[in-house]
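Input (structure):
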């Protein structure tokens, strides 16, 4: 029976997961390396933006079911939810996963369950995680090792952690079943049982599918600009076909999943993963494509001011990991002729990657607003008073969210950039 869970990593996945297990009545110890995060959570507060999470964390902390700690504690089940970034050569950095497992290994007893939720390359459980526990005398029969990847959408994490289908893959069939028992205490969706390597690959292919399809849409934008075609119209009309579902283009692909996970497959099978690598190249090229169009829009403007609206990779969240906006901003900052101002209503200045300004300050005397995040606040840019104070009311909407045109605003997006 599982009474206590130790969850390592209290970020965008680890903290909601901790709160949900605590809300189900388990004793949960959440572990993180940041003293600030530990202190914040133990006060019943949170350090990330996610609907419903502040109230849930306060409730389970106040009830004593959730505690945060700098060091792991002995438990019945352990969940590893730490980041897996990529190295400069685009290979997977599993150092955080290894460190987390090495820290809990001395505490793990025979019969305990260890689940890695972090997204990892195929065979990481068998080739990297299992040897760590073997070093402390625990074989695959002694400790139940499994992979259960998170598959949630920021903004809906609390709902999807409970309702979504979960893929549970153990190193052994018994480990699969033991790990599934952990999730059955909180998950209402279907729980599918498989082996660890299949679970690892399934998660990667979910995100790779989206990355490849976004690359197709982004390539369409480039082709459409060259040929003078309305890209959004092509996508809308093509999607009227019952078996076609083109994705939407954007300024690039960001986040901790889509911009990273495909590389884990390329790393393991570089000669076979040609389409996956090409798709990564296309999506990685979009920030430079956006900057090129910005400079074309401003070709006749002397010493222009550009207002960046949004630094997050996705709308209505504060997460800017791998956001293409960061690369676009860095490119523009290198141009001595451009004055740059940055505004994002969802990112606090104390965690922002660049100094942020108020909306009014950002647009003051601006020649161009560039929309890089699809926040709800930006959808009415063309009809509210957001652009008051601009020198030239021109908007380049890379997310396709500004629909209603005001007569005194010039709007560019991926449907009409051929007209620049």
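Output (sequence):
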């Amino acid at each position: 029976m599982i009474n206590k869970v130790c969850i390592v990593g209290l970020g965008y996945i680890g903290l909601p997961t901790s709160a949900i297990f605590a809300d189900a009545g388990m004793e949960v110890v959440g572990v993180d390396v940041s003293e600030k995060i530990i202190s914040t959570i133990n006060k019943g507060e949170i350090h990330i933006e996610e609907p419903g999470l502040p109230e849930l964390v306060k409730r389970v902390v106040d009830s004593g079911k959730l505690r945060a700690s700098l060091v792991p504690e002995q438990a019945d089940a352990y969940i590893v939810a730490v980041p897996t970034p990529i190295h400069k050569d685009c290979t997977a950095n599993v150092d955080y996963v290894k460190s987390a497992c090495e820290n809990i290994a001395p505490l793990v007893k025979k019969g305990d369950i260890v689940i890695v939720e972090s997204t990892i390359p195929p065979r990481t459980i068998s080739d990297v995680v299992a040897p760590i526990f073997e070093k402390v005398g625990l074989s695959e029969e002694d400790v139940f090792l499994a992979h259960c990847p998170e598959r949630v959408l920021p903004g809906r994490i609390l709902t999807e952690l409970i309702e979504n289908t979960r893929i549970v893959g153990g190193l052994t069939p018994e480990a699969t079943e033991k790990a599934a028992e952990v999730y059955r205490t909180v998950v209402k969706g279907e729980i599918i049982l498989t082996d660890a390597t299949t679970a690892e690959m399934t998660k990667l292919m979910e995100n790779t599918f989206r990355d490849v399809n976004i690359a197709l849409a982004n390539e369409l934008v480039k082709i459409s600009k060259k040929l003078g075609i309305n890209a959004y119209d092509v996508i809308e009309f093509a999607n009227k076909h019952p078996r076609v579902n083109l994705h939407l283009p954007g300024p690039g692909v960001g986040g901790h999943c889509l911009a990273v996970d495909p590389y884990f497959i390329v790393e393991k099978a570089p000669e076979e993963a040609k389409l996956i690598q090409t798709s990564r190249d296309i999506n990685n090229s979009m920030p430079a494509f956006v900057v090129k169009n910005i400079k074309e829009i401003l070709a006749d403007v002397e010493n222009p001011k550009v207002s960046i609206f949004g630094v997050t990779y996705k709308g209505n969240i504060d997460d800017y990991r791998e956001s293409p906006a960061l690369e676009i901003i860095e490119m523009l900052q290198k141009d001595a002729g451009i004055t740059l101002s940055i505004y994002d209503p969802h990112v606090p200045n104390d965690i922002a990657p660049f100094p942020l300004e108020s909306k009014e300050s950002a647009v003051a005397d601006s020649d161009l607003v560039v929309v890089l995040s699809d926040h709800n606040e930006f959808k009415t840019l063309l009809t509210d008073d957001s652009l008051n104070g601009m020198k030239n009311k021109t908007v380049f909407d890379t997310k396709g969210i500004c629909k209603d045109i005001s007569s005194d605003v010039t709007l560019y997006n991926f449907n009409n950039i051929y007209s620049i």
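Notes: The CA atoms of residues 177 and 193 lie 7 Å apart. The radius of gyration is 23 Å.
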